[in-house]
Design brief:
- This protein is of the alpha+beta class.
- Strands 2-3-5-1-4 form a 5-stranded mixed beta sheet.
- Strand 2 and strand 3 form a beta hairpin.
- It is flat and about 100 Å long.
- It holds the Pfam family DUF4349.
Amino acid sequence: MKRALALLLIAAALAACGKKEEMAGEAAVESYGGAATAAAPAAEAGDAAQQVSPKRHIAVSHALTVETAPDHLDAAWQAAQQRCVEPQCELLSATLQRASDYTPGVAQLSLRIAPGAVAGYLAGLGREGRVVAQSTEREDKTDEVIDTEARLKNLAQLRDNLRQMLDSRNAKLEELLAVQKELAAAQAQLDAAAGLRLALANQTEKVKVDVELRAARSVAERSILTPLLDAWHDIGHDFIRSVAALLTVAAVLLPWLLVLWLPVRWWLKRRRRRLQLRAPDPS
């Protein structure tokens, strides 16, 4: 009886242990499954992040033609320059050609403006006269920016490696000189790449604006005969320029012709004298 009771206790203990191991196994499976389920969205998010396109670097440029009153051209040109205030605006060039007897006055400006200040600046130009022409161009500089940044990174790494080689105490003098030469070349290329990256940043982070201010022509100047008068004036200017070019060529060649003419004249006289000496005496 005691022996049977002991056997029953042992069997119950073994069954309890088997049940615990089964429950532990199921818990491990559920834990693994949950981890796999949680890892799946993370992997999908990583793939989505890799598929996101890089930041685009776009160079935007505007061109405007503004027609203003002839007596207001100079003031409009000055006002357009004064409206360009750093650091939001950078004036690249400004030219003014006042009116003559045959050509109306015209002024030109080239600027780079921060994107947020472009609308206000263009609105100010519209108040100076009538906008008769306007165009916008966009150029993608992303590939150039990515290539330049990769080149900068590689050149910086090369420069650092060469500097470490210079610090080596076991290197020979010839090796150090060669490394120093390569380091100077790498630094020069790095500076050039940095300048190119700065230029690209200036093109993509600011908007280029080209402005032409021109004086409005009167009704008489816009008559049907205006193209013929303009053509006649152009012909006269072209003829005068041709005559001026011809005089310039003559002034350049004349001294050389004189220098060459003297020895040629001397040679002709000498040749004529020899022929006279060789001629038979008629007597």
